[in-house]
């Protein structure tokens, strides 16, 4: 068994979509980034790549590469699934947390978990997404940005 950790932050701005876990969430602000800026999926991908000692998403999907401009992070997550398979690993489980002051994310969590499970060819009970605020404190509290953290466990497939 191997474990990995992922962390990411994106800035909130006007005129961008708020996409978390592959769900387009209605909100006055969205996340700024080269891709769709899905901060949750970025943290999850970094956890998975880290567990397999495959580096990070900056290495695999550089933000200088025009191919990744505006790309759905679900597509990137599917690619990471392939990288782990090639390296001989299966995913046991993923746990994650989104830190955002607004909007309320509870209504969207189940759809996020389904999107992640589908992209990784996993069962729903292998994926958990949580959301919390930081009580108005710091950059998430002032709605300057949203952060996400993820951990995962992977195991070597029998060869
Ligand atoms: Mg990111």
Task: Describe the protein's architecture and organization.
The protein is of the alpha+beta class and 159 residues long. It is built from 5 helices and 7 strands, in the order E-E-E-E-H-H-H-E-H-E-H-E. Helix 1 runs parallel beside helix 3 and helix 3 packs across helix 4. The longest helix is centred in the last third of the chain and has 15 residues. The chain starts with a strand and ends with a strand. The relative contact order is 0.25. The structure holds magnesium ion (MG). The site of magnesium ion (MG) has 5 residues, from strand 1 and helix 1.
Structural class: alpha+beta
Bound molecules: magnesium ion
Strand order of the largest sheet: 4-1-7-5-6
Task: Round the mean pLDDT to the nearest integer and report it.
Answer: 96
Give start-end ranges of low-pLDDT stretches.
none
Order of helices and strands: EEEEHHHEHEHE
Report on the biggest sheet.
Answer: 5 strands, mixed
Head-to-tail CA distance between termini: 15 Å
Query: What count of helical segments does DSSP give?
Result: 5
Shape type: globular
Strand content: 25-35%
- How many strand elements? 7
Radius of gyration: 15 Å
The helix content is 25-40%
């Amino acid at each position: 068994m191997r474990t990995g950790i992922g962390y990411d932050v994106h800035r909130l701005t006007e005129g961008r979509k708020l996409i978390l876990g592959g769900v387009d969430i209605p909100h006055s602000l969205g996340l700024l980034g080269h891709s769709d800026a899905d901060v949750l999926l970025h943290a999850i991908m970094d956890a998975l790549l880290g567990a397999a000692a495959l580096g990070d998403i900056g290495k695999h999907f550089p933000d200088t590469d025009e191919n990744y401009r505006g790309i759905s992070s679900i597509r990137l997550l599917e690619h990471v699934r392939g990288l782990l398979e090639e390296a001989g690993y299966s995913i046991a489980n993923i746990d994650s947390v989104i830190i955002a002051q607004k909007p309320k994310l509870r209504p969207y969590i189940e759809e996020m978990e389904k999107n992640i499970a589908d992209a990784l060819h996993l069962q729903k009970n292998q994926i958990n997404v949580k959301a919390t605020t930081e009580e108005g404190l710091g950059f998430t509290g002032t709605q300057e940005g949203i952060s996400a953290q993820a951990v995962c466990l992977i195991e070597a497939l029998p060869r």
